[in-house]
Amino acid sequence: MTIRETTERPSTTTLGTNTLIPGLNAETILGQFEKISQIVQFDAVIPPLWDGNAAPRIVASLWDNIKND
């Protein structure tokens, strides 16, 4: 759950791994939490490249750039 008006990761909402809850209304937040917590199986897809391996890819890219300069 992202509790604010926007998210820097809109793909998380379209792929089903996040729910955007605008505003700070406690009833709305709690209502959405109740709704989400009762879902047994989410129809969600992990965004591409969100596999926990960003750091090795970044290091490899930096290393390649250093070697080629």
Radius of gyration: 18 Å
**SSE order, as H and E?**
HHH
Globular, elongated, flat, extended or rod-shaped: what is the shape? elongated
Structural class: mainly alpha
Overview in brief:
This protein has 69 residues and is mostly helical. Helices cover 46% and strands 0% of the residues. The chain has one domain (10-68).
Strand and helix layout:
Blueprint: H1 10-14, H2 26-37, H3 54-68
Describe this structure in words.
- By secondary structure, the protein is mainly α.
- It has one domain.
- The protein has 3 helices and no strands.
- The chain has helices at 10-14, 26-37, 54-68.
- It is elongated and about 55 Å long.
Key phrases:
69 residues, mainly alpha, 3 helices, 0% strand, elongated
